[in-house]
Amino acid sequence: MFKVLFEDGDARVGELTLRSGVVKTPFFMPVSTKGSVKNLSPEQLRETGIECVIANSFVLSLRPGSELIKSHGGIHKFMNWDGGVFTDSGGFQAGSKDFLEEITDDGIVFKNPYTGKKELLSPEDAVRIQEEIGSDVAMVLDDMPSPLWPKKKIEVSVERTHAWAKRSIAAKKDNKQLLFGISQGGTHKDLRERSAKTINSLGFDGLGIGGLAIGETKKNMFAALDATLPFYDKDRVRYMMGLGSPLDIVDAVSRGVDCFDSVLPTKSARRGTIFTFGGVVHYKNNKYSKDFAPLEEGCDCYTCKNYTKAYFVHLLRVHENLGLTLATIHNLRFMQRLIEKIRDSIKQKKLFEFRDEFKKNYK
Ligand SMILES: [Zn+2]
Q1: Of these residues, 8, 82, 88, 106, which one is catalytic?
Q2: What is the distance in A from the centroid of ligand 1 to the CA of 125?
Q3: Per-residue pLDDT tens over the stretch 272-305
Q4: How much is the pTM?
Q5: Residue 98 designated active-site
Q6: Domains, the chain, ranges and CATH?
Q7: Taking each helix axis from N to C terminus, what angle separates 123-133 and 151-171, rounded to the nearest 10 degrees?
Q8: Crossing angle of helices 246-255/351-361, nearest 10°?
Q9: Is 18 left (phi over 0), alpha (psi -120 to 50) or beta?
């Protein structure tokens, strides 16, 4: 399960035991929505040091279907990935405007894009689908409110999230898969506190924090996080969903968050935006077309060891897929190097010095 090994203030280094192996915390997961981290083979992904990915069980249940993945021997075999696999329940996707018909107390009614039919995704369905997919960690179905909704409406979704969390625990059959709860509450401190207390009391294997990093201000996001964490048990792993900004990750770890996922590093890579310890660099123009240095001096990734900025800019200009692969490798290695520096700083009780130094240099 989860064990805290080192602490520095509220920040921790720990070990999360999954059925596929042990993962050190804090960690960052790239997104493999449809069963693949875009543009990377599992070998290339493994070489970045990334230990866990998150796939989307709702999207996979539409195609190729969770029964097919089960009969294939589970998601790890299907993807040829022996690291950790989380699955999101699909609340975020099914509840998005592309799919959503309505949300009722029964579940999320969505339009199947392949058949055009209306279907229901219930909390029990989400548990069953994730058990069939065979991920290491399943997330409960939640009713994620927009932080822009009126408070009364957010309160309804918080209560529904709690009712669904209880139904999810009752539906769980696979004892080797971990099930994480998710608290909600928009940016309202009292709702966040109520939700954190409720989710914490239900006996989940891990504790998610949902509905943040979706357009609210940073100040409100961290205020909501600060209203949540005091009510989460310290001996369980805390997962802040959807956070991928390097600066925000450092701040969230310093508050006691252990894991993160986001499309940001991979999506940015595909747009020619490269993460470095000096900040982000955009390779949209020809500024670097005669620059024979690596993307980041001192980076030990495959891209930086073997290629120059000039070649990378060329690949982007002529739309060669290798450019997307090289950028994705670098950005994920950057995230992993950041995580490794964070872990080392916590072990040495120097996280807060690291945080200040990182913020000073990261532009
Ligand atoms: Zn690199």
Answers
A1: 88
A2: 41
A3: 999 999 999 999 778 999 999 999 999 999 999 9
A4: 0.97
A5: no
A6: 2-262 (3.20.20.105), 272-356 (no CATH)
A7: 50
A8: 160
A9: beta
